[in-house]
Amino acid sequence: MNNIEDILQWADNLIFNDTGQHLTPIQEAILTGAWQRKKYPQIAKDFNCSESHIKKEAAKLWEKLAEELGEDLNKFNFRSKLEKKHRVSQVSNSGDCLVQEIDINICNKFIQNIKSPQTRSHSPPDSPQSQNPSPIVDLTDAPELTNFYDRTSELSTLKEWISEARTRLITIYGLSGIGKSSIALKLIEEIQTEFDYIIWRSLSDTPTLSVLQTELKQFFSRSQQNPLPAVIDYLRCDRCLVILDDVQNIFKSGQLAGQYLAQYEDYSKFFKQIATSCHQSCLILLSWEKPREVATLEAENRSTRTLHLKGLGEQAEEILREKGLTDEQNWSELIRLYQGHPCWLNIIASTIQDLFNGSVSLFLAEQNEIFLGDLEHILESQLERLSESEKKVSYWLASQAESVDISQPGDRELSKSEFWQIIQSLGRRSLVEKVQMGARSHFHINPVFKAYIQSKSNPLAEKQL
């Protein structure tokens, strides 16, 4: 056997016939590493796991395979014993990949057919599952994916984090309507065959952690003979993808970003457990706000990554094309004004059709400021979550003609420490943006929110902090 896929298939069949269970991801990693003559520290590093856990799982695996290959089986002699016992040439069609069409249609939630290469099945040959293998998927809480605008770069980054870096906790945050759910659904389409279970849950109704964990365990236990005690046990046993949407709903309004509601602080411990425990699964958080503990976990390099989802670039032209707008030479200016935000552009494009018969040049010529119209209630819903101090700083930033160097002293009522903390919180809400000017970082409020704030009569807009 020279092909690692053949070896994994052989081991999977052997263990299944003996125990009724398939190889786990960590067992596959151990066998692959041993075949490649890697040491346990390297296998642990590749698997994003501790060396002690790899050794513990390896000892159990060698014991299971010892009857077939010899009682003194270990990672050092595994390859030689297997080659000696199974001197079989590589199967003639090992280079050919079967193409499997996978349909996911659960509770009227449909993901388009995906053709993906598959070289082996998790089921024994000729079993029903081997003819149509697919993950167990629950997308009942997911929104419908109607339109998806090209985000090749962001998708590539997410796939690299999941498939290669084996990141355990990913946060995708950004303004409401920026496309967080859409990119997560598109991601599922492209990587679903890498997982055994995929589940999407919305926190819009603010379920307690206990309720959420019960739902997750019920879902994961569908194909388990014996239920496991905790969610983390299922994440270790199988490769699972969990998406939690609307995470901002478990955070307080009127406080700095990412502070949990009373009775919901245990979510923070749960997220930390996912990031720091050894397993082969992935939890994706979708939120308007970046959770505070995520920044700490990232700083500690705890298998945690964050994607700040921003507006579209040239890809946003597809929105304007779908809306039938004219004056294509002015589209880039329209996209710039509205930050490439897909939801905002859809709304403004409808306004241009209603008022100017689709003429972008007429729309831009008739305004000396950013027109908000139907955007106002959307912007208000985002701003009403701010603390009083964040509102104060936001109005002050909106009154500034240029970006602000926060390292410079100023006549402010807030201390420098408080001011910096508020700027950081506004950044975690995607309301404040950083621009590099020489060696210094400057900050300004999102231009669309700036226009909204300036349109409101508020004495704080004229007051220096």
Provide the descriptors you would attach to this structure in a database record.
alpha/beta; 13% strand; elongated; 44% helix; Rossmann fold; NB-ARC; six-stranded parallel beta sheet; 20 helices; 4 domains; 465 residues; two-stranded antiparallel sheet
In short:
The chain is elongated and about 85 Å long. It is of the alpha/beta class and 465 residues long.
Question: Largest sheet at a glance?
Answer: 6 strands, parallel
Structural class: alpha/beta
Low-confidence sequence ranges: 87-132, 458-465
Order of helices and strands: HHHHHEEHEHEHEHHEHEHEHHHHHHHEEH
Q: What's the domain count? A: 4
CATH architecture of the largest domain: 3-Layer(aba) Sandwich
Please count the helical segments: 20
- As a percent range, the share of strand residues is 5-15%
For the record, what CATH class of the largest domain applies?
Alpha Beta
The fold-level CATH name of the largest domain is: Rossmann fold
Gyration radius (Cα, Å) is 26 Å
Write down how many β-strands occur, each being a DSSP E stretch of 2 or more residues.
10
Protein name: ATPase
Domain NB-ARC: 154-248
Biased composition (Low complexity): 121-135
GO molecular function: ADP binding
Report what the structure shows.
- Residues 154-248 form the NB-ARC domain.
- Pfam families: HTH_VMAP-M9 (PF26355), NB-ARC (PF00931).
- One of its GO terms (molecular function) is ADP binding.
- By secondary structure, the chain is an alpha/beta fold.
- It has 4 domains: 4-85; 98-120 and 132-308, Rossmann fold (3-Layer(aba) Sandwich); 314-368, no CATH class; 378-462, Arc Repressor Mutant, subunit A (Orthogonal Bundle).
- The chain has 20 helices and 10 strands.
- A 6-stranded parallel β-sheet has the order 3-5-6-7-4-8, with helices on both faces. A two-stranded antiparallel ribbon has the order 1-2.
- α18 (388-398) packs across α19 (416-428).
- The longest helix is centred in the N-terminal third of the chain and has 19 residues, at 51-69.
- The protein is elongated.
- Mean pLDDT is 81; it is low at 87-132 and 458-465.
